[in-house]
Amino acid sequence: MGKLKIIKTFIFTIIVITNAYSQQLFNIKWSSVINNPDNTWFATQNAKDVAENVLLYQRNIGGWPKNITMQIHLSEVEKQKLIALKPDTKEITTDNKATTQEMLFLSKIYRQVPDESYKKAFLSGLDYLLEAQYENGGWPQFYPLKKGYYTHITYNDDSMVNILNVLKEIVDKTDYFSIKPSEETVKRAKVAFDKGIDCIIKTQYKQNGVLTGWCAQHDEYTLAPAKARAYELPSLSGKESAQIVLLLMSIENPSKEIINAVHFAVAWFDKAKIKGLREERFYDEKGKINDKKMVSDANAPDIWARFMELDSNTPFFCDRDGIKKGSLAEIGEERRNGYSWYTNEPKEVLAKYEKWKEKHFIADTKTVIKQNKIVVKDDFNVIVAQDGSGDYTSIQEAINNSPAFPYRRVTITVKNGIYNEKVKIHEWNPNISLIGESKEKTIITYGDYFSKINLGRNSTFYTYTVLVEGADFVAQNLTIKNSSGQVGQAVALALNANRVLISNCIILGNQDTLYASGTNNKQYLKDCYIEGTVDFIFGQATMLFENCTLHSLKDSYITAASTPEGVKYGFVFKNCKLTADAKATEVYLGRPWRIYAKTVFINCEMGKHIKPEGWNDWSKPEVVKTAFYAEYNCSGEGYRPEKRVLWSHQLKKAQADKYTVENIMGLDFSNIIKEWNLKLK
After folding, report:
1. Stated pTM of the model
2. What is the number of domains present in the chain?
3. Cα(676)–Cα(681) distance, rounded to whole angstroms?
4. Do residues 594 and 468 share a domain?
5. Is pLDDT larger for residue 450 or for residue 408?
6. How confident is the model at residue 299 (pLDDT cuts 50, 70, 90)?
7. 370 and 259 together in one domain
């Protein structure tokens, strides 16, 4: 009898609690309804009524609008309006947990009440998430796409992380969701999840060549940090980065890239934390925040800024005018009190990291000791600095220690300094980027020349300062110099690789400054300064120069192409400027190193040093039939088309129009160039 009384009392208590909760249902947040810890409530009529609303608010496309209090009672008129809205696709989103939280509610009620309408709606929501993903793995804030910043890849308010957490539960086949999709859908979810993680890895921001955290938004094309609302400028985010790292840490058997991403993000959290500062809030009589102040407090736990400068991690704050301020006190009351400017979410990452690190230390990273601390070193992002502050003091040492045939790009950032060394990017070192701190002050120099090498008739090819043999090479913000002077053949930069990108570089030498080789190699130079004397740009590769300056030091020849027979394009110069020292008054545009040479100048400005005849046959009479030298729409005192040698060509517009990046470099490489140019802007 005693036991029966206890059971009755327990049941009565549950009923009282449930009824009390039902009375409060309409006065609490929708998220609190979903996260009701009493799972039995989801079997009640109140829960079924809420579920009816959830089904009504779902659009045919599968998603939900945001900021809807789903548990509020709907009149019949309101229900009919929602039914009429079913085909509408506007304002459907994953922002503010929309769609993912409704799916969670449907899963919880389905576990108690296995109604097929709940299952159908959940699976439709899952289809919506899969459909909304970009090909690059990211998700926009709204789908179908809404014009404006909403199209950016959105980490803001954990939108993309919430989606990936849903997919992870589906892929891992956990019991978190009571509704189980088909195997075909699970496979789709696995592909989408992997692409999403790959997008996260690719968008992790590099600060001075070192991986850090993430931004709230990244451009959907370039993956660069992007702006949202006026007060949400491109910046590193302490809040959003924390949830991204927690997701990465939850992955079983993480890839090398994921392990690296976590290690470096944690190192960044440690670097960017704010000590001795506490947020103090003030409330009005209704319990609403009416002011926030940051006060000094030596005992305050560490916090992080929501918005940090991309280059320095310095916190900043904005009003709706979009003007950066240095402190919270400097912005107006509305934004100061109505937005979260600080966060403590990275503390959860740091709390879990030590245990995670024991299991995942270290894949493609190495540990080094600096200032008595273990520091993670990334093989794919290294720094060369002569003062010892980087990973290496020598550029060649950094290259020699790079992974052979790496599965992703290796970025070698070179700090300002004069690097007196002979540098070779080996064939087994493709996908290397050599990025200088500044083109004027990051200088690679060496002084080999033909007679110094003294290896016979081919000694020229051993004289390089920098030799590139690894494909997909990038160089930016560097000076590359052969310092030997006017002593004969002496190469500064030798390119014997395919898909080479050179930007904002200074290439200095005399005779044979720039050598471009390889019958099928495609090489692209943009915004570079190249100077020399005799044949200072020579070789057989297909090369496109855009917005470059070609400076002649004395009377000589600018180019000496050796384009192979049958190759459609040789050297192409577009929008370039041809300048010279005062003593150089008679300079040829080019002469043929080999008889099928091709060289074309389009929209170039030519100084008066260019000889009226323009081109020289190098005492090879057959070149009048085999070589192809041409110009189009050039300008300056040196552009004298009426005086050019008769066997050269002045292109017509229709002919010149064919000299596009796509045609010259090929479609695959031109797409890489376009993406690269976008990143440079």
Report:
1. 0.56
2. 4
3. 9
4. no
5. 450
6. very high
7. yes
